[in-house]
Amino acid sequence: MPEPIYLDHNATTPVDRRVLEKMLPYFCEIYGNAASIDHLHGTRAKDAVNSARESIAKGLGCRKESEVVFTSGATESNNLALIGAYRRFRDKGNHIISTAIEHPAVLDTLNYLQSEGAEITLLPVDCNGVVDLEALEKPIKKETILMSVMFANNEIGTIQPIKEIGALAKSKGIIFHTDAAQAIGHEKIDVYDMNIDLLSFSAHKFYGPKGVGGLFVRSYSPLIKLSPISFGGGHEKGMRSGTLNVPGIVGMVEALTLATRKMKDENSRLRESASLIFQRLQQTFPDIKLNGHPHNRLAHNLSLTIPGVEAKALIYCLKNKLSFSTGSACSTIKVEPSHVLKAIGLSDDETFQTIRLGLGRSTGDAHTIVDILNCGIDNIKS
Question: How far apart are CA 347 and CA 341, in angstroms?
Fold first, then answer.
């Protein structure tokens, strides 16, 4: 039986073989601890980390390579950014503004911060999943210290007006954090040009290894300092203790370099495939609806509501031919409506009739995908 076509690249991506080749020497040959700088094995590892940090910083438009803090991924980065900033600036206020469609790594962290006295305002979004700038400004008050708005949504692909949001936050003296897990490696990002103070990312979203990521922490206008949330060694300028994952870091920078190099061409290809899939499906089933912004969206994301077809039933029906999901991989264990789809106005029934197709490098002929989906939908409808 042939392998199913993988269409869940928003959940995770396969490690690029060129990335794996870069990583392999750091498991058995260059295996020193990057913090053990008194001997050759340690300095070799440290040199690799420094080189990776410099490359990632340059790619993100950082002023200094030290603005990149290595973590285990975007979930840890989000926790460090939100909890670390709140605790550091708690004496200036306790109010945090975010949106109703954030990833659970942000929403759950904000929920936790309420136990530390934080006041949280979650703003609604429009039917395309876009936060309104006027609505974002309205709840700002003198106690507001932090604003967190995701760069691109993991379920519906909508890209927020990050530069404008950052400018608003900056004009009010508010720290601006963005969860860019879905965007980095897929969208051009310049943290200073976009007025970003804190930015979270994960390597496995752009063909790098799982278990490694980073956090951009601005050091200039303004200088952002975070309170650590883990202790035991003072690594990463005291912000994130723990032995660095050198093979993962090496793999991450290689993956980002490769993704950035082909970003424009790959996005063009994926956007064309996504458009073809949606148009052909809609020709056969005219009531299929595309969720998210029609234009300002990730090229490789398709969120589709198919009336009369339960998403889980379609996934099960086609499991030997296609691998796709209903939405966030972080919430598929919960049998409840997607908070993102509810926020853009879908009913409970519609949320359970929604699938997410995450296209990627391995995605082949779009017509083959459409034929398989049409067959599955037709079987369930009949």
Answer: 8
Do residues 179 and 327 share a domain?
A: no
Q: Identify whether residues 169 and 195 lie together within a single domain.
A: yes
Q: Supply the pTM of this predicted model.
A: 0.96
74 and 97 belong to one structural domain: yes
Q: How far apart are CA 112 and CA 84, in angstroms?
A: 13
What percent of the chain shows pLDDT beyond 70?
98
If asked whether residues 9 and 116 sit together in one domain, one would say no
127 is catalytic: no
3-state secondary structure of 80: helix
> What DSSP character marks residue 114?
G
* Domain assignment of residue 376, given as a range: 5-13+262-381
33: domain CATH number is 3.40.640.10
CA distance linking residue 144 with residue 142, whole number of Å: 6
- Taking the C-alpha atoms of residue 204 and residue 212, their distance in angstroms, rounded to an integer, is 8
**Total count of residues recorded for the chain:** 382
3-state class (DSSP) for residue 92? helix
- Closest Cα to residue 74, out of 253, 193, 216, 171? 216
**40 and 126 share one domain:** yes
C-alpha dihedral (110, 111, 112, 114), degrees to nearest 10: 90
User: For 199, phi and psi rounded to 5 degrees?
Assistant: -140, 125
Would you say 219 and 64 are in contact if contact means Cβ atoms under 8 Å apart?
yes
- Could you tell me if 225 and 88 are in contact, meaning their C-beta atoms sit under 8 angstroms apart? yes
What would the two tokens of residue 292 be? 């998210």
Is there a cis peptide before residue 222, judged by omega within 30 degrees of 0? yes
Q: How far is CA 327 from CA 73, 251, 356, in A?
A: 20, 27, 5
Q: How many domains does the chain have?
A: 2
Query: Which is catalytic among the residues 62, 127, 317, 330?
Result: 330
Strand order across the 354-358 sheet: 289-291, 301-305, 354-358
The model's pLDDT over 271-320, given as tens digits with 9 standing for 90+, comes to 999 999 999 999 999 999 999 999 999 999 999 999 999 999 999 999 99
Taking phi first (over 0 means left), then psi (-120 to 50 degrees means alpha), and beta for anything else, what does residue 2 get? beta
Looking at the fold, whether 191 and 280 belong to one and the same domain comes out as no
Question: Which residue type is seen at 282?
Answer: Q
Could you tell me if 181 and 148 are in contact, meaning their C-beta atoms sit under 8 angstroms apart?
no
Residue 212, C-beta contacts closer than 8 angstroms, at least 6 positions apart:
70, 71, 72, 73, 202, 203, 204, 245, 248, 249, 251, 252
